[in-house]
Write a structure and sequence with these properties.
- This protein is mainly α and 309 residues long.
- It folds into 2 domains: 52 residues; 236 residues, MetI-like (MetI-like fold), CATH 1.10.3720.10.
- The N and C termini lie far apart (58 Å).
Length: 309
């Protein structure tokens, strides 16, 4: 009797385990489904529609039965000197912004992690992160006022010190720098938090061993701390590349692409074409920028994975 009931009990237990496992997977999909649906509806689907529009004539692009023109829009965009100039400008601005933001964030995070800012550490952490959660438009409107040559606070301060005025947004020579500073203020806090999170889980025993071996502060940071920050550096680099390649809001609020097109980046130029009803060229331009973002991001991830590995 016992020999008959034991296998049955064991079989029920196994069946119950498989049912529990299946239900667990089902619950997982139930939780993921709303997010997946929203991602497809508001993320992937608009991208696919944009790519489709890029192959149609602008006059019929938004009609139920558009006229397809193949790669004509892409050929027109790639032959447009304004687009080529804006693309080069976007790449230069992105490179400068990524380096400036990550260098500042890494330095500030290292300072916050050290004992130099032991007093007021929480204040500085809040102060550096507050601009990240400040609405984009509100922050950039304030910066536009600060840069104003007539009554802006920056030039007022320079005037009190007897220094020459800063051209800010009104000079072609300083407009890109002015935009870069405003974006650094707005975004750097995010990168600081990522670096701080990585610094908090590093192996401090390695630093102590290096200190015992006679390594200087710089040597410990360069050869012990910095290699452990590669995961954070990779994440921040990829995010920053995506962020600055598609720079748009700051241009709309502060410069409208000027002066002399010095801040007319690809995203804003595509917006201008779309506003003019040139939908095919605008979406072709957006698709090219999207492809560049994906390509650079994947390359950065691959390089980062090799170095971390």
């Amino acid at each position: 009797m016992t020999s008959l009931t034991l296998p049955i009990a064991h079989e029920r237990t196994g069946l119950a385990g498989r049912l529990d496992e299946a239900w667990g997977h089902r619950v997982f999909y139930l939780f993921v489904a709303p997010f997946a649906a929203l991602t497809i509806l508001f993320g992937i689907w608009p991208i696919l529609l944009s790519i489709q529009v890029s192959f149609t004539a602008s006059a019929s692009a938004l009609k139920p039965n558009p006229s397809y023109v193949g790669l004509a829009n892409y050929a027109a965009v790639l032959a447009d000197p304004v687009f080529l100039a804006s693309l080069a400008r976007t790449l230069v601005y992105t490179a400068l912004s990524v380096v400036a933001n990550l260098a500042f964030a890494l330095g500030f995070a290292t300072l916050l992690d050290s004992t130099l800012l032991k007093r007021g550490n929480l204040f500085f952490r809040l102060a550096i992160f507050l601009p990240v959660v400040t609405p984009d438009v509100a922050g950039y409107v304030v910066w536009r006022w600060l840069y104003d040559r007539s009554f802006g606070a920056i030039n007022a301060g320079l005037d009190l010190l007897g220094l020459p005025a800063f051209g800010g947004l009104s000079s072609p020579n300083t407009a890109m720098l002015a935009v870069l500073i405003a974006e650094l203020w707005h975004h750097a806090g995010f990168y600081v938090i990522i670096f701080l999170a990585n610094l908090s889980i590093r192996d401090k025993a390695l630093e102590e061993a290096a200190h015992i071996d006679g390594a200087t502060t710089w040597q410990r940071w360069r050869y012990v701390v910095l290699p452990q920050l590669r995961p954070a550096l990779m994440i921040n680099t990829v995010y920053a590349l995506i962020q600055f390649l598609k720079t748009f809001t700051v241009v709309v609020v502060m410069t409208k692409g000027g002066p002399s097109d010095q801040t007319n980046f690809v995203s804003y130029y595509a917006y201008q074409l779309f506003d003019q009803g040139r939908y095919g060229e605008a979406t072709a331009m957006a698709t090219i920028l999207f492809s560049i973002v994906i390509l650079i991001s994947l390359t950065a991830f691959r390089i980062g994975d090799r170095r971390v590995g």
